[in-house]
Amino acid sequence: MTAKLPYDKTDPKSIERYAKKLIGKTFQDVLNESIYSNSKVGDESGKYGDEKRKGGLGNLLEKYYFGYEVNSDSEPDFKEAGVELKVSPYEEKNKGGYKAGERLVLTMINFNKEVEQDFYKSHVWEKCKLMLLIYYFRDKAIKNNLDYHIDYAKLFEIPEKDMNIIINDYKIIIDKILQGKAHEISEGDTMYLGACTKGATAAKSLVSQRYNENVKAKSRAFCLKNSYMTTVLNNYLMADECTDAAEFASEKELEAKSISEIIQDRLNKYINWNEDRIASKLGLDINKKNKSYEAIIVKHMLGVNELEDEKIDEFQKAGINVKVVKFKKHGKPNENMRLEDINFINLDKEPFDDEIKDEEGNDIGWEASRLYEILGNRKYLFAVFWEDEEGATFKGCQLWAMPDDDLEKVKAAWKELKIKIRNGVEFEVNGNIVTNNLTKSSENGIFHVRPHAKNSFYKFTDGTEIGNGNISDTDLLPSGDRITRQAYWLNRSYINSQLEDTLIRHH
User: Fold this and answer.
1) Domain annotation covers residue 379
2) Residues 137 and 268 occupy one common structural domain
3) Total-model pTM
4) Do 171 and 50 fall into the same domain?
5) What would the pLDDT profile of 332-364 be if each residue is shown by its tens digit?
6) Which of 237, 272, 298 delimits the end of a domain?
7) Which domain holds residue 294?
């Protein structure tokens, strides 16, 4: 590679200007037009074009567009300019809009090395202080990776307000390492900066740790979480400048406390208050018949007037969703928690785990799934109420993320569910009652699939119709049958097992 570089490798803005010329091109265009290729384009097309090989497109741009060989993990890609190149996909959401296709991996965590406690002296800071983000659209209808279009190229510096949260995340991760608890690290521990598992079979990819010679830990890397990068994509790359979302906490507050601490401070002062007293204190006039009554109250308790979690800046970036847990009076069990309605056609189209790989070459079919997005990429703020004769009393809150071991169980159940759908859902008809073989609450102990519709209705491919509803109460299966609309539900027993004991109503 002796060709003169068409950009100033010491100037970030020059590198960015050159990168912007990629916009509108496919990766095949890059190969075809490359001044650095010493081999036949067809050879390289075969190397990078495998539909299952999602890794390598970043390497392609490094080599055939920017004109440098892939360097080591220890220094920025454009070291003279202090710029790190990050090439990543984005995708269309099932319900419209766009999301980051992957978390943004920054650098491996070396559990055998002495920990750097000052974030600004750390290797992770070197890898994220100035990034050139290049995003391409992962169109699921396109079979050859090289036909993906590059749509965005822009320098990105993490905003100062976000840095307060990221530094706190870093501290949480390194504290566990220093305590010899690297094996207990979970991506759910933190808000924006995560410690994700690495290795083609992460569960088997165990490494020793300096601070605890007795226990091995899963190999992990520092990353910016999917929820954070989705916000960067939508509010920075796709916009001329960051769009305004409702602010939860000021920069000054975040310098002094973590998001979790601020949430606790704001909600805990209402513990043991009746919901009517809270509403009165906050000047709220809400119809109690409104299904979102408690949820609206909780948002105002938090100090935000926005009901949608995705419109609250810090909640959007950290993937925090508020969920009300209500314990019934007279010893009645609390309800199962509905997560989201299922689109069976989309679920069937989701690749199995080994059918899609990330930029690092790791299997990510499960991580690209909608169910993982709901349970793996999100944190839940459980606001707990105990029902009584007067209404309900607020008993406290808990910020929760599903433990990694439980996510593995959900992954296995997700795979089984996909197989059942692909093979054809089995129905048993007994008069007007129809049962199926979809995931039951007893199967994995965590979640189940059951109807979420006012009326029951089924329409089978042989023309048989059963139920008191109509087509609008159904969802289409790949087989052509129509089934009463179904949803993912967290088991009530599982929710109780995850809640702190002081929040649980013992009858």
Assistant:
1) yes
2) no
3) 0.89
4) yes
5) 778 899 999 999 999 999 988 777 777 667 777
6) 237
7) 251-350+370-401
Which of 387-391, 393-397, 467-471 is modeled with the greatest confidence?
393-397
**Do residue 48 and residue 192 come from a single domain?**
yes
Looking up tokens 């390492």 gives 177
Q: Long-range pairs for 5-8 at CB < 8 Å and ≥24 separation? A: 5/66, 5/67, 7/66
Q: Which H or E element spans position 166?
A: helix 160-178
Radius of gyration of the chain (CA): 25
What are 172-228's pLDDT values in tens digits? 999 999 999 999 999 999 999 999 987 655 556 789 999 999 999 999 999 999 999
> Cα–Cα distance between 279 and 276 in angstroms, integer?
5
Could you give the number of structural domains in the chain?
Answer: 2
Tell me what pLDDT residue 240 has. 60
Residue 234, CB half-sphere, CA atoms under 13 Å: how many? Answer: 22
483: in domain = no
Q: Is 427 among the domain residues? A: no
* Residue 410: predicted pLDDT: 97
One domain for residues 324 and 219:
no
Q: Is 412 inside any structural domain?
A: no
Instruction: Establish how many alpha carbons lie within 13 A of residue 96's alpha carbon, considering only the half-sphere containing its beta carbon.
Output: 0
**How do 474-476 and 482-484 pair as beta strands?**
antiparallel
Beta-bridge partners for 429: 434
User: Among 237, 263, 290, where does a domain finish?
Assistant: 237
pLDDT in tens, 248-263: 999 999 999 999 999 9
Q: Quickly list DSSP for 406-463.
A: HHHHHHHHHHHHHHHHHH---EEEETTEEEE-SPPHHHHSSEEEEE-SSS-EEE-TTS
Q: From CA 167, how far away is CA 136, in angstroms rounded?
A: 29
* pLDDT at res. 1: 45
Residues 225, 161 share a domain:
yes
| One domain, residues 336 and 201 | no
